[in-house]
Write a structure and sequence with these properties.
Structural class: mainly beta
Number of strands: 6
Strand content: over 45%
Radius of gyration: 12 Å
Length: 84
Amino acid sequence: MPGNSFYAMSTNQYSQRIIYMADKDLEEYICECHAKNQHKTGEPVWRIRKITYDTNERIIAITWADRSKDFSFICDEAEIYNYD
């Protein structure tokens, strides 16, 4: 995702990438995968959550991509999924 930044972190079980949208400062995405897949950001091995903030920077929603906790999404394309 050009123009966006991310923070990568690993735990014993999962690796995470937190993506901050450069043009949308009221939302960010948390991509999570099994640690062995942490460098496969362009492959469908991730589950993704979107965090939405109000204008006072308070969290108002945390939603899963396509309402699914499955590891079947592409981290590099986090913003294209449905988060209703």
